[in-house]
Each structure stands twice: as C-alpha cells, then as structure tokens.
C-alpha cells in the first residue's frame, strides 16, 4: 500500500519481485478504504444513461482496434449510455497527457481517462483530480480476480484510484524472420554484446538499419531495456528509490551500450509514432525493434504469422524479467456523468471486457480468471512470464516514475539523440533523479 510521503520509494511500482502469487485466486476481503469519498456504484440495468466521454491516446492502428472492441461491448451491455470517444493521437500518450493536464486544470475533466497504473497516477492523486474506485474493484471481485500484488501497487493510503484494463510487457524484441535467416542468425543472443554482433551480421547482409526506433518515448523505452540488462533487477529498481545512483559506473556502461545500439538504428523524428518503427521490421527494412507487446496486433493487422514471418524474444540481458506496465481508467473529480463512468469501469474491468480488449491489443488481462487458452501463442507466453518472471516497472510508460520525472528523462534522452554526449546524458539523468526523488 502506497503513502504519498513515501512515494519516491514506492513508485518503482512492481519492483523486482517474483509474482508467483499473481496466478492465485486468494479470497477477497475489503478492497481499500471503506470510508473513501466516492460516487455510489450504480447497478441500473442498461446503464446510468447519458454521454460517457472517455479520454485515451488509442486513436489509430491496433490500439484503436482494442478500444473499438471495448466500445462495441460497452454499447451492448449499457444501451442507456452513449460512448463519446475523446481520443488524442500520440504514442504513449505524449500529446494526450498535455491536453488532459490542461483540461483538468481548467476543471473540464472527461468522464474517464486512460492512465498508466503506477507512479504516473500519483500526480493526479496529489492534485485531487481523481476519486477512489474501491467499490468498483470490490464489485469486480477484488483480490479473487486481480493479483493482490497488483492491487497493492495501485493503492495509495488505503484507496485505489484506477481500474486496470490490461498488462503489457515492454522488454520485447520483435524480429523479421527472413532478415535474420538471410544474415545467418539462428539463435537468440544471450546479452547485449552478442546482440550487437548479430546486428553487424545484419548490416553485412545488406540491411543498413538493423534496429528501428521512433520518437523520443520509444528511445526512452530502449534505454530502460538497456538499463535492466546492464544493472540487473535490483540495480534497475534501485534507480527509483535512491539505492542505485544514476551516475554510477553501471549506468555509464548502460549509456555507452545505448549509444552503440543507436548507431545501428534509423534516423527518427520526435513525432514519429511506434508503428513507424514496427512497420520497418514488418517490411524487412530493419531486423529488430524493441517495443511493447501491443506490436502483436500490428503484425496481425498486416497479415504476418508468428514463427513464419516474425519472431520475438526478451531484450538480450533481460531474460527472466518482465518489464511491466498497465493501462487503467479513472473516475475524475467533477466528471459530468460519474454513474456512466462507473459503467465504463465495470465493463473494462470485467472478464468479458478484458478478453475482448486484450485479444485485439496484444496485451494480457489484468484479471487472473480469463483462460490463457482463449489467447494466441505470444499472449499465452506473456501470461506465463508474468507469473514466473521477476517484475520491474517501465520508465517510459509511467509505472516507475511520475509524469514530471518522466518528462525530465525524456528531455535528457531527446537531447542525447541529437548530441550523442554520454557524459551529458548521465549528468542530466542524475539531475532529474535528484530533482524528483528530493
């Protein structure tokens, strides 16, 4: 359970813990603070009625396909409600979060908005911009259907402020099978050094950009993968509570490896969204792309088959680690239709909703009672990994750091992408940690 005054230690989210208990179905008790100020949960058949404006960054591609699956089900389950799509384009929510911050500041909240479960929500909680949803979590089944370790990490001073819709893995390499075959690569590299040696083989085979990247947030995600590989679970998790220094020799080594990886990559613009880089792999213009497992749907949408056209593996050096993030939805304070919001939250937190959504998006359900057999091979593997692996929290996707800290890291990474000055990046990262850890 989080407390605001220890947030800097807790914002590592799902830190360095083997969540074997995630697959268990423990009996639910009271979830959160029973005295939390919250809008009463409506149980009216057909829904509370009225418009329900939902703010996301799922505006295109496979992400929109996942949202569309949810909306279809929402319309069937709650015919009295009218879903209003307030999506703003921009991978990882970079554009959406800026507009959302303005709307919340001007007391014009949507009825619900997407956020990354974990440290990212602390900003909204501390500003009093979202309400607890303990009653929704309890009505959905609480600890009997959601992993207790997950709920603990969503809890702040006895209250839960969002309903998780899924779980994503961020330390995945997606690879073009034909490109690897042409380069004579038949084995998964064991570490970053071996991976870079394979990239040399790819270049020698005629592919000029072995690794694809997109805008700044994808570069932050690549950096966090390198940090996990070079620092290990404990060292990486220590970055977020002060136990590991951002200017340590291990971080300096990781920055050097990160710079080397970028030397194999294409030139990206800051505004490039993630499908640009994933499509480079699909089209054979690159061998590898480090991306979250929402990329699965992109491959599926392009008619590509796992094993035949593409393959995947944990980022070299991170095998046995699950780099965690989760999308979740909130009840903003001052929402015009809080009853309709809770209809939406009940839908996205239900077993039926999580199955429909995650099948389309490539992620795995946050609930433990959705059968793995209902999902394709990659997602079955991801479900097993989430149970068996050690868990760390994503920087780029708000599980490990607050919005402000993420912004500082992103600024440092963007500056580095232009300058390639390793010492300056280390210095900027250390300064960001000092500023945000206090």
Automatic annotation (TrEMBL):
SUPFAM superfamilies xref list: Periplasmic binding protein-like II
Gene3D superfamilies from the UniProt entry: Periplasmic binding protein-like II
UniProt xrefs under InterPro entries: SBP (IPR006059)
Top-level lineage group: Bacteria
Any one Gene Ontology cellular component term annotated for this protein: ATP-binding cassette (ABC) transporter complex, substrate-binding subunit-containing
Signal peptide: 1-20
GO biological process, one term: maltodextrin transmembrane transport
Molecular function terms from GO: maltose binding
Keyword field: Signal, Transport
Family: Belongs to the bacterial solute-binding protein 1 family.
Protein name, entry field: Sugar ABC transporter substrate-binding protein
Organism of origin: Intrasporangium chromatireducens Q5-1
